[in-house]
Amino acid sequence: MQRIGVFVCWCGTNIAATVDVKAVAEAARKEPGVVFATDYQYMCSEAGQKLIRDAIAEHKLTGVVICSCSPRMHEATFRKTVEAAGLNPYMLEVANIREQCSWIHKDRTEATEKAVVLARTAIAKVSLNVPLTAGESPVTKRALVIGGGIAGIQSALDIADAGYEVDIVEKQPTIGGKMTQIDKTFPTLDCAACILTPKMVDAAQHEKITIYSYSEVTEVTGFVGAFKARIKRKARFVDETKCTGCGECTSKCPSKKNKNEFNLGLDNRTAIYIPFAQAVPKVAVIDAESCIKKKTGKCGLCQKICGAGAIDYEQKDEYIEREYGAIVVATGYNPIDLAKYDEYAYSQSPDVVTSLELERLMNAAGPTKGTLLRPSDGTHPHTIVFIQCVGSRCDDARGKPYCSKICCMYTAKHAMLIREKYPDTEVHVFYIDVRTPGKNFDEFYRRAVEQYGVDYIKGMVGKVVPHDGKLLVQGSDLIANEQVRIEADMVVLAAAIEPDKSARSIATMLTASIDTNDFFTEAHPKLRPVESPTAGVFLSGVCQGPKDIPETVAQASACAAKVIGLLAKDKLKGNPCVAHVNEEMCNGCSTCEKVCPYGAITYQDKEFRVPGPKRTEIRRVASVNEAVCQGCGACTVACMSGAMDIKGFANKQIFAEVDAICR
Amino acid sequence: MTFSYYPGCTLKTKAKDLDRYARSAAAALGVEMAELPEWQCCGAVYPQAKDEIATKLSAVRALMAARDEGRELLTLCSACHHVIKRVNHDMVSDENIRTKVNNYLKPEVPYTGETKVIHYLEMLRDTVGFDELAKRVTRPLKGRRIAAYYGCMLLRPGNVMGFDDPENPRIMEDFIRAIGAEPVVIAYRNECCGGYMTLENRALAQKKATTVVDAAASAGADTIVTACPLCQYNLDVNAVGERVPVLYFTELLAEALGVKEAEA
């Protein structure tokens, strides 16, 4: 029989205001095996932990139940506590009477009753706990960074500077991400390229960093410290090792009318192209969809011209496999598709543009060489209307419920830059709220209004109507309480941002969780903001939530610090709560092997003693690779003969819990 | 599939085309429109007053009749659809109205908004399916550039009408594609045509209608289609300057299905 101690936490008033903690301790004391029960204000504090350690010694406890917050919060803390008192850390159970009880109930009697049941359940389970010992696994001292935007580059540089190898996998032909398309950055107005491209070069030249551009991660197996990733290197039909980036091929290519992705389709590029002058790697790529040679077999002009002999029309996709200790997700964002917002006439007029398109229209390397001209007729716009929150803070299904965070500041930036450069141009901004928290942000916005005379109108636009080469903007001014009609030359839409489309498949591949908006979920929203709940997977940049550049860089460095902390370890303690097969009961059906998502189960022939004259027989039975098993429990549910069990979560323990609830 | 059908007064008088082409097209598509044996004018305008029920009773009678027939209630005229669907919503969500209406009508089984109200366009999209419709089309309207005009009442308020996005709709454009023509999106497709203002302030109604028709003309549309008799009237009669024919969508549907001549 175990000697169990029960410790009921008040969590200040978080639990104690709704649950009668003394009554819970009182009820627990009456349970079989319980020799000690008490309550305390903050069980996780040093004093609370000391109380637990002292009780273990004094009452010779063999099992401990803590009734407190979710085990996701403090299970690790309390395991250390009981271990320090000489108990096996797995002789501890946490009953969650906060998130799953006091926080969601209002009635004190009902909540107390439920807390008693939850305590009873944990007591029933801990009675059947057995000591477990975690195995150790080695750490591969290399990190994989998925996504080569500013977040991925910053994380990679920091990890590499600490002396560890880093691979950046970027699906576009060049690293740099969205920041390469931005003209100037708020609130300092320094040019994005001037601060980003040196970092891109640093990454390329760093001896510890390998860049796989035009590549995608297609499969990840393994676990923290020992991931294995399969990387698809898409055929660019140009030998990266030979191409010098001279650009001769791009000037001669006859297929010229292909949408230039870098300029968001505002101008055209050739079929063989280098995304932009500062691309890293500065290597050409052939877009097979528009290459005449790839489509018809005739042409081959670029091959003839290329002095380096780098063109290879027969190049195939290649796959490489690499091992990593840690994975950084830095998959970034995109503006939303505006098809659902056609009341702003985005599809009806080329003069309605997104803010990112405006960046290109104002950039010296953009389609208009930095002179702001209307896309429809190339004339100078005299009136420009900005519409904020297009798809952000939206209360219906067509938009996003969240604030995209960066739009207020970049709109103020656009408005200010236009007024500075073209004082004859009127600028109106429709907004719901102007949100400018951040260092020097509000000062920046006020400068746009007070110094540059940008006309901010509180209210939303109902409709934009293209008419006779103009755009009639109908909106409401909530402060003046009147309808506003503006005849504009251009309309700029601050489209909401959303996680890159790849986020969902990458999350599945990494078994990392994402929220309803496809942003990656952090292990703890306040205390572990750069780690995913999946061990060894870290989050960098907008893939975790909307951020501006300074925040992204800060998070990328924080993420790198966590990766470095992991890679600095030689061995990791594993999770001992893994599957275990009772070979006597296994009938060799292979069901568990089929359901195992990690490939941890194999089958082997084994000799068993049997009664009767034969004495032994060979039977095929399951075998679990404990280093690969993640303890998900799929096999225990699927096993028809009941041979599979998870250590620490054995079937009989689960049934004991259910019995305790139903008692 | 059989629907209980509520035509409404205008479809028996000025808007006969809207009704008869709808019937022949539905027959060609294998959809039965069983006209309610008895119905009254819906009132044509949704009554905003919260403290009286008299103006809602005729809609409830139609809804209740469809329920008793065990069918969904099919409507066609935008105004009737608007009134009946909103009254039905009141019967579901407003306890005060529901109680008073039932106390007054004293039906054998109290009515609590069970009937599903379906617009003809919804029937085409959800029961027939636009893909299936495209297959059934025998005379696709190739080369036609058609502007859809939704008006105010068909889709608003969005949370009650609930069959398309009121600010950025697509059901009529999808319909136009299904009958083989090319949809022309005009920004004014969900702005007011002038409505009943034509009785009181003709000049204003003319201004509203002209804006819509001008936009369709300058976008290169050869036809405007609508589901609303009042919109059809205003755009057709009140627009000044450049003219674009304004037809009911059912007429083009019948034409594409090859059943228009049989009717005419």
The CATH homologous superfamily of the largest domain in chain A is named FAD/NAD(P)-binding domain
Could you name the CATH class of the largest domain in chain B?
Alpha Beta
Distance between the termini of chain B: 26 Å
Strand content of chain A: 25-35%
Q: How many strands, which pairing sense, and closed or not: the largest β-sheet of chain B? A: 4 strands, parallel
Q: Write down the Rg of chain A.
A: 31 Å
Q: State the helical fraction of chain B.
A: 40-55%
Q: Estimate the global geometry of chain A from the Cα principal axes.
A: globular
Task: Write out the strand line-up for the largest beta sheet of chain B, numbering strands in chain order.
Answer: 2-1-3-4
Low-confidence stretches of chain B: none
Q: Whole-number radius of gyration of chain B?
A: 18 Å
Largest interface, with counts of residues having CB < 8 Å to the other chain, equals: A-B, 16 and 10 residues
CATH architecture of the largest domain in chain B: 3-Layer(aba) Sandwich
Counting copies of identical and different chains, the oligomeric state is heterodimer
- What's the story with the biggest beta sheet of chain A? 5 strands, parallel
**What fraction strand of chain B?**
5-15%
Structural class of chain A, by secondary structure, is: alpha/beta
